[in-house]
Amino acid sequence: MRSHLLLLILFAFFVSLVFAAIAKDDVKEQIRYGGAMFAGFVASAVVLGWLMYPFPL
Amino acid sequence: MRATAAEESQSGNLVLLCLASWAIPGAGHLWLGRRNKGLVFLVALPLMFAIGLALRGRLFPFDFSDPLVLLEAMADFGMGATYFLSKALGYGAGDVRAVTYEYGNAFLVVAGLLNLLVVIDAYDIALGRK
Asked: Which residues in chain A come in under a pLDDT of 50?
């Protein structure tokens, strides 16, 4: 797999899953917490990616 | 004041719990009866580590002359038995020319660090803080 976006999504999924399991005990809270963290990871990466777009390498 | 036999036994169990939790991700939670959490850690962390290896990430050596490499080695070491097994099987040589090399390193390092957090969580549960 070479897609940066898919690797980022996979990474965000694992990190969110483990953090949610550590931080919350109730399953519903885990899903809410993990989902928010996952969305935050992916959204912030996409926003930061576009913000860096105009800059040369 | 000297510790009682019960206190010494309890601290011995805590050390054993932390070692088990470090060696096998989720073992501490399974030991403490947190079955669902233990299974999540048992599956997710080694899988994340394996993906890091498949992405041609590197298991860094303990090189004391380079602090960044040393820190990455310590993070990799956080995966416990999975780390030693991978080393023994010859995985983790890393391929710096691979497009996915840095992603692989991120997966390996973060899997190890997350396992250390899991160990701390198991310790807190054993002490009754959670």
From this structure: none
Cβ of A10 and B118 within 8 Å?
A: no
Could you report the predicted ipTM of this complex, rounded to two decimals?
0.90
Mean pLDDT value of segment B83-95: 95
| Cα pseudo-dihedral B121, B76, B20, B1, rounded to 10 | -70
A&B contacts, CB < 8 Å: 40
List Cα–Cα distances, B50 to A1, A39, B91, B93, B106, in angstroms: 14, 24, 10, 13, 12
pLDDT of residue A2: 79
DSSP secondary-structure letter at B58? B
Q: Helices (H) and strands (E) in chain A — how many of each?
A: 2, 0
* Residue B26, both tokens: 């989720």
What pLDDT score does B4 carry?
Answer: 72
Q: Residues with Cβ < 8 Å from A14, sequence gap 6 or more? A: B44, B47, B48, B107, B110, B111
